[in-house]
Amino acid sequence: MAFSSSTRVNLERFWSTIERSAEIGRGREGGLSRLALSDADKAIRDVFVEWCREAGLAITIDRVGNIFARRSGLDDTLPPVLMGSHLDTQANGGRFDGIVGVLGALEAIRTLNDLGHQTQRPIEIVNWTNEEGARFSPPMTASGCFAGAYELDWVHQRPSDDAATFGEELRRIGYLGDAPVGGRELDAYFELHIEQGPILDAEKTQVGIVTHAYSSRGFFVEFNGETAHAGPCPMEHRRNALVAAARLLVAVDDIGWDYADTGGKATAARMTAWPNKAGIVSDWAQAFCDVRHNDPEVAAVMAERVERAVGVSAARAGCTGKVFERWGWGGAIFDQQMIADIRTHAQALGYSTRDLPSQAGHDAYFMARVCPAAMIFTPCEGGITHNNNERATREDLEPGLNVLLHAAVGRADR
Amino acid sequence: MAFSSSTRVNLERFWSTIERSAEIGRGREGGLSRLALSDADKAIRDVFVEWCREAGLAITIDRVGNIFARRSGLDDTLPPVLMGSHLDTQANGGRFDGIVGVLGALEAIRTLNDLGHQTQRPIEIVNWTNEEGARFSPPMTASGCFAGAYELDWVHQRPSDDAATFGEELRRIGYLGDAPVGGRELDAYFELHIEQGPILDAEKTQVGIVTHAYSSRGFFVEFNGETAHAGPCPMEHRRNALVAAARLLVAVDDIGWDYADTGGKATAARMTAWPNKAGIVSDWAQAFCDVRHNDPEVAAVMAERVERAVGVSAARAGCTGKVFERWGWGGAIFDQQMIADIRTHAQALGYSTRDLPSQAGHDAYFMARVCPAAMIFTPCEGGITHNNNERATREDLEPGLNVLLHAAVGRADR
């Protein structure tokens, strides 16, 4: 039986693969806590590699731990079509975020194997290391390195809160590969992902066509003050870095609310202080926050407000404050031809579709810098994610899986 | 030579003892980082015990690690006069806070030894465990236990940020004694301490007569929200516990400023959140804050505002919030006769004096619950404390040392 317009993935096989994955690195009830380069991450990597080998794929691991599983094409000299996402999760993560993109790609390959269909171009699956950034900052570390945004040594030196570095942990779990990171030609990159937002679920739309990325700007901020006794030191002599950071986080939250009516968001995500103890005024604090908006110009205004709030918050607490690292992404980064092809395939398969932006960060954002890239979204219940209550049914996921299969094969058979 | 009104401490001997202490547990330049029950705390305890034995004192260690060093009286059946404070420091502490009270008491004993003067009542020096609360919360843990405010088992179970418990660390450093905690009669408790405020230094007054304690109220607060993705989750669906805690800390700081003109203070002291990571909304946060005012009624109003701010801050972030532990102290807790005696001795010695309240927490607050207690303050530069820049000269300390000597001997010879 040849690959045809009536070919569909094996939904039960895909679902049992998801369920097996959900047993590795269990978090709060039903969820996952599979932090990058942890023992649980090693365990799912080992199982994933075994699945890929059983599917006849050739495994390559690069020097930041990205796993590539390759299926030969009729012309193996052509640049491959790449599909994938990430198998790591947040500390209180779900069983679908990222994982659907990797295991959905595996299901597509298994379907091709069932049919004995060999594509013109090679096809590869990828599992990117540390997409979440839940253990090592920044997120999307390894796809960023693949795309040339981050230096290899810098990535290896990223610290975790538990003291080990990215490079040390990569070696410890046995996934410090020897393949160079990036630098090779790719035909295209597809990433299937749960929407992580409520739109598709609310509208009961089956497939999300991702047209562009929300504009997002992140800020790592540091405040410096001076320690003092929480008792006798008069208010006017205090330089409490914890207060400076708290004032910034409140300002950031207020900025988010100011743009909530147009879908803007601002997140007070992280704060640490020292000594951070009862009885003493803290002399040091760090905060991480971000702003996001569909309109790049509005996102720029929000970002400007955050920058100003750093100085104001510091001054009100008698401290100094500075943004010591910034990141940003967003805009019309995806390939227009791939977007059109995804829409055509989805409609040919009879699914309802909707154009929408991606609001979260994804490895596809970095991949769009080095090859044509596109994303396909599936619905998830209420848009809940980064939470053990993240949910999707096999029926939620089936349309996206089939669109990924047909779009990738269509591309690989060009 | 008998003890007389012309007797004075040996200032050079005292100063060299302070300098020796300042070599143990060095922190930032010139300061100390001698956290309770750490290796550095063990080291100063060992040295202190050796000094006491050299002075002919009998050592007793109780089950929370308090060290008592006893000098017999002519009638050893009488309740002893106790003098002391604490040898532990903040993470960025100075070399005088607490230490002057313990080593000043030692100097008083050494002076009596020089003269061969035996007091009517026994005199004891005490070093209280974990006054600072910089490693184990709450502060003044072991004097609180001595005074019956805290149960022994509860104290032993206090966790540190580095995972070890109070009891485990007490055993590890060899200071889990077998003497019962408290429960014996004391004649009086004297505590000499640097002011930790700017008043004496600014006025060039030599001795502070501590008339009462600032009214202080502390609040341990917990907020619960829900994790969510920092990207797609709309502002109106968020329940960010970190935002709730930040809003509380800002409200607390504002309360402090509202009462700054009458010497009120409010401190945002500590905050922790989980997962506290870029890319995710935190579902849990804890904060510690306190308010302090010289007027107990005003302190009560400030405390009431904090209680209301907990609910308001939680609600604005879509979270729940509750105060899960409170503490408070303050008021006219010191013994009026001892205060009068201290004033008389200071004036007889020719020192300038000033009545003033104590604004920080001290072990003397708990001791005032079980026996007559009083405090003597010495100036320190600019009132800077809980900071490596805490400074005092030997001339700053000399008057307080002599007042302690004379007041304690006066009491012990009754």
Q: Please, could you describe this protein's structure?
A:
By secondary structure, the first copy, chain A, is of the alpha/beta class. Chain A has 2 domains: 11-197 and 359-412, Aminopeptidase; 216-329, Alpha-Beta Plaits, CATH 3.30.70.360. In chain A, 35% of the residues lie in helices and 22% in strands. Chain A has helices at residues 11-21, 39-54, 99-115, 141-146, 152-156, 166-172, 199-203, 241-258, 296-316, 336-348, 363-367, 394-412, and strands spanning 58-61, 67-71, 81-85, 123-127, 188-194, 207-224, 228-229, 265-274, 280-281, 284-293, 320-331, 353-358, 373-378. In chain A, the strands form 2 sheets. In chain A, strands 1, 2, 3, 4, 5, 6, 8, 10, 11, 12 and 13 form an 11-stranded mixed beta sheet that branches. In chain A, α1 packs antiparallel against α3 (99-115) and α8 packs antiparallel against α9. The radius of gyration of chain A is 22 Å and the shape is globular. At the A-B interface, β6, β7, α8, β8 and β9 of A face β6, β7, α8, β8 and β9 of B. Chains A, B: It comes from Microvirga tunisiensis.
